[in-house]
Design brief:
This protein is mainly β. It has helices at residues 2-21, 25-32, 265-268; strands at 42-46, 49-53, 55-56, 63-65, 68-76, 84-90, 101-103, 107-110, 116-123, 134-142, 152-157, 167-175, 192-196, 199-204, 223-230, 237-241, 249-254, 260-264, 274-275. Helix content is 11%, strand content 38%. It has a 5-stranded mixed sheet, with no helix packed on it. A 4-stranded antiparallel sheet has the order 1-5-9-7, with no helix packed on it. It is elongated and about 85 Å long. The protein starts with a helix and ends in a 7-residue tail after the last strand.
Length: 282
Amino acid sequence: MKKILKYLTFIAATLMVIASCDYDDSNFDMLHKDVDPNSTYYLQFKDAQQSLVVEVDPGSGDIIDNVSTTITVKILGMPLTQDLTVNLTPNSSSSATPNMYELSASAVTIPSGSVAASITVSTVAENMPVDEEVQLLLDITSDNNAPTGTTLDYTLLRPGACLPLPGIYKIDMIDTYGDGWQTTTGDGGAGMTLTLDGTTVTEFGMCTDYEASPFDCVQGPSSASTTLEIPDGTEVAEWYFPGDSWGEISFKITAPDGTVYNWDSAADGKHPVGILDFKVCK
């Protein structure tokens, strides 16, 4: 008898599970479809704050390329059963004038069944001020006057030329082994160079203990300092390091405004030969 009761209980439970898994089409539609085309929905921008920086030649400030990104509007809620048109309107507080940017469309259409859509915005650098940020502010309104979120706020910038800061630069040099600098050879080699407007104006470094230096070196052998001047009116300054044969060299360059550039091969391992990533703009 107990086995029969167990069996009947199992059948009843199974029927309840099957019944609960069945659904009513009308209930599904009510939950997942927009039955009222005039109802309102909450709209907002995705990533409402971005920065668009035009690519320019750092020496001359000439425009290399404009920059583009997407503006995405999304629905907070379920997809609609009809297309939704969202208008993008410049806010009156926007400091970016219409000729400084280009929208691929003045409205975004979110297709039925979707919750987001995008257009493209691109800078028009030739019409932008140099080295001055402008704000592109856009508001959104929809066909059914849905409530909206934060105003889109993009920062647009066309950088100017990075003219080197004129003045006296101090270079503090160290050799951790205490036998001067060995750069391109195990006994010595070339020094660092400073090139101004395409002309190498000086070569410098710490003297080595093992050979006569081919340039006017500074006596160490563990530490030494020197100074170089970048005159006013210089357009391009490039600092070049020739190498570190033994991984013992470190130095720091201090600009006239106190900006410090540290280079430490002893701590970081051998660095690649080349132009240093050191620029202090006027």
